[in-house]
Specification:
With about 230 residues, the protein is an alpha/beta fold. The protein has 8 helices and 9 strands. Helix 1 runs antiparallel to helix 2, helix 1 packs antiparallel against helix 4 and helix 4 packs antiparallel against helix 5.
Length: about 230
């Protein structure tokens, strides 16, 4: 029996609300280095965590778990795009709650702020309401770029194995200026992310032209890769 939208939604929400401590790099200041009110003959037990700084968020970890919630190739690609477009690398979207310990405060939980979770879930719910692969692709392109290219609504979509050298990059000037750091996040992806299509292409004059997924495509090795192709 086809899984309900509610069940899918609840699984994605549970992932977004979990603690992501082990996917975050951080530093902080320990107050006990400045002051301590404990017995000088004992260990300091009054230290608190101050000035918590988030240095890096492994967004791929989050995307990977969200994608695992859905068993549909097109929806999985779109979910990954939603997570990567959500700006979760920005520390302002995270809340750290320290944990009590026998020797003062310890690093506790890192959770996505409630407002950002709600924002992401709005997009996830709208995606899940699409009735077809065609609807899902049109939704994610419109979500990312704000509009659909001329002719997109006339296309039928399928996932096709394509040789990298056969894919035409329409904006070569943009392609060569891609941010290296953004490309690197797509290398050595965990499963199931590494099995997702590398991008979205359209057939123009019998040529396979890339329109979305420049960074993922740039990070891919030479050889054959799955691509979402409209024709």
């Amino acid at each position: 029996m086809r899984e309900t939208q509610k069940a899918r939604r609840e699984r994605v929400l549970a992932v977004l609300q979990k603690d992501w401590k082990y996917s975050i790099k951080y530093n902080y200041h320990d107050s006990s280095l400045d002051r301590c009110y404990c017995d000088e003959n004992d260990y300091c037990r009054c230290g608190t965590i101050e000035d918590m700084n988030i240095l890096e968020v492994n967004v791929s970890d989050i995307a990977n778990e969200v994608v695992e919630c859905i068993d549909d190739d097109f929806l999985e690609y779109c979910l990954d795009r939603i997570i990567r477009l959500a700006g979760l690398h920005d520390p302002c979207h995270w809340e750290h709650t320290p944990s009590p310990g026998y020797y003062g405060e310890e690093v506790g939980t890192f959770k996505i702020r409630e407002g950002k979770v709600s924002d992401i879930m709005t997009h996830v719910e709208n995606l899940l309401k699409t009735k077809s692969d065609k609807g899902a692709i049109e939704f994610i392109l419109n979500h990312e770029y704000g509009y659909l290219l001329t002719g997109i609504k006339d296309l039928r979509w399928s996932i096709v194995g394509v040789r990298k050298k056969d894919v035409v990059v329409g904006r070569q000037d943009h392609y060569v200026r891609l941010e290296r750091g953004a490309i690197e996040q797509y290398r050595d992806l965990p499963s199931p992310l590494k099995h997702l299509p590398r991008g979205i292409c359209v057939m123009l004059n019998e040529r396979i032209c890339l329109i979305d997924g420049y960074h993922r495509f740039a990070a891919s090795s030479n050889g054959v890769h799955d691509m979402i192709v409209g024709q």
